[in-house]
Known about the structure:
The protein has 214 residues and is an alpha+beta fold. The protein folds into two domains: 63 residues, no CATH class; 127 residues. The chain has a two-stranded parallel ribbon with strand order 1-4. It has a two-stranded antiparallel ribbon with strand order 2-3. Helix 5 runs antiparallel to helix 6, helix 5 runs parallel beside helix 7 and helix 6 packs antiparallel against helix 7.
Amino acid sequence: xxxxxxxxxxxxxxxxxxxxxxxxxxxxxxxxxxxxxxxxxxxxxxxxxxxxxxxxxxxxxxxxxxxxxxxxxxxxxxxxxxxxxxxxxxxxxxxxxxxxxxxxxxxxxxxxxxxxxxxxxxxxxxxxxxxxxxxxxxxxxxxxxxxxxxxxxxxxxxxxxxxxxxxxxxxxxxxxxxxxxxxxxxxxxxxxxxxxxxxxxxxxxxxxxxxxxx
Length: 214
């Protein structure tokens, strides 16, 4: 929806939901009036293409919470592989993810960037197992900004940028996030330290961005 305009996409509307999707969709051209869909895993012939209808909400939701949300908003009961997975194992992952969120917020408030880096690296490993492109992109953004405060070795930052480019940039809207941030880096280092830092700490606008991305 944009400016009270609702759009119906005659092809994309046929794509079914899965909490463990094989594809993702997003806007193109900076407008909600145009969308694209891209594979996020290798899809075998004759295999259904699926997307996550609630990707921006589902990362910290349990199976029961996801099913309730989908039932209330989309009016169907989800029986995808993600919902049939081991709930005990999922509960453990969600508990760890919530702990990472709370500890990351505390580290950010205390300006403990080293701890924040370690926590977000742990989150990254979890996100990679849960097929959530939005959370993946958010975590890479957070890590790259924090790297500017830590003055990391350029090879480590270059590796981070390389991984992000491969994993998050097929969709135009995620590619734009990548381009907007990485253009401020050169050979693993910020082009202008003052763009990120003020009196030895991250600038307030970056702290606000990180808080939203956590």
